[in-house]
Amino acid sequence: MKLIKAEVVTIGDEILYGQITDTNTQFISAELDKIGIRTSRKISIGDNREDILQMLEDSTGRADIVLITGGLGPTKDDITKKTIADFTEDSLERREAAMEALRAIFNKFGKELTEINKKQADLPTKCTYLFNAVGTAPGMWFEHNGSIIVSMPGVPYEMKYLMQNEVIPRLMKAFERPVILHRIIRTAGIGESWLATKIESWEDQLPEHIKLAYLPNLSQVRLRLTGTGSDEQTLKAEIDKEVEKLYPLIAEHIHGEGEEELELTIAKLLLAEKATLATAESCTGGFLAHSITSNSGSSEYFLGTVVSYSNQAKIDLLSVKEETLEAYGAVSEQTVIEMAEGARKALKSTFAISTSGIAGPSGGSEEKPVGTIWIAIAGPDKTVTQLITSTKDRINNIKYGSKVALNLLRKVILNEI
Length: 417
Description:
The protein is of the alpha/beta class. It has 3 domains: 4-174, 3-Layer(aba) Sandwich (Molybdenum Cofactor Biosythetic Enzyme, Chain A); 179-257, Alpha-Beta Plaits, CATH 3.30.70.2860; 262-413, CinA-like (Maf protein). It contains 16 helices and 17 strands. It has helices spanning 13-16, 24-34, 49-62, 80-87, 96-108, 115-118, 156-174, 192-198, 200-204, 232-250, 262-273, 287-292, 311-318, 322-328, 333-347, 394-413, and strands spanning 4-11, 37-45, 65-69, 92-94, 122-124, 128-130, 139-144, 147-152, 179-188, 210-217, 220-229, 254-257, 277-281, 302-307, 351-357, 372-378, 383-389. It has a 6-stranded mixed beta sheet with strand order 2-1-3-8-7-6, sandwiched between helices. A hairpin with a 2-residue loop joins strand 10 (210-217) and strand 11 (220-229). It starts with a strand and ends with a helix.
């Protein structure tokens, strides 16, 4: 079965200038993926006639479907509609159905339908009118030289309405589509290159129709298996079989699947053990507690945090010894051990995490450069520590340190260390 390819295009100078964030292409690609259509390119161009014409020429030569958002307003800078009409050697005509929709919207809000607004009902004669129930700019569907071109407003909620109610149903009728399935395996505590080395032989034997992608981010790597086929049940069984082979190779690094973040994995483990958690944070400044409490129901297992940023707070609130701070400093294995054990005792939790480091960009030394972070996990039977070194980016260090700390806790709960 032929793989249907789509290109998704945003039109608007405001996107190129960085004045607004493009969320449209992400939504469109996800919707296409659900029905077995692969997005092969995403393109952003400005409100320029020559650029739009060149894009249309190139994209229709490569793709079965070209989905465009933006440039459909009634003002002079919105040129998409006229440019597509020129590309398809067409002219504009006023559509009564589009006019009726405009009148209904303006009547609903008690506003006058001006001449400039009426231009929204002027559409190319060759296009199929797509009714927009939530805005004034209609969508347009063209069939040109073997490709389908769809033009939609750039306003996200209007685009979403048209995609879900007009475009997707029409695409499903227009094409016989293959099944595309994804399965995501989430790993932590291992870098992308090391992970690739561990699973190289397994990856090399994957069937041609099942592809693997590495998606790394902050001490975590997601492995995405994407399969393409004609039968959903058969394809799912094939992917499941490959995942069964993968698990024994990297079991200690897998913490979940799909959209399950590390914080949710920790929640499940704590709830299963009927255990509780506290945190004692210095360099992460409460971000770790924020990450943990981002999950609904976290009050069942998370007891609280102490953000002991100063040495005095470490002494007063966590019972860290002055001698420890004087001898080893705040950023040290000895200090994080006392912080974690002090938090566990103060908050009466099963486990406690502590962090202390140099987030940066200033404050580092030759002995302890920016990005040096000590982590400790105190539990009923033992306290374990980990030293990590990261970048000079403050926010990245805070986020990275928090993720590593959570993964260390995961390993402690599972008795892997």
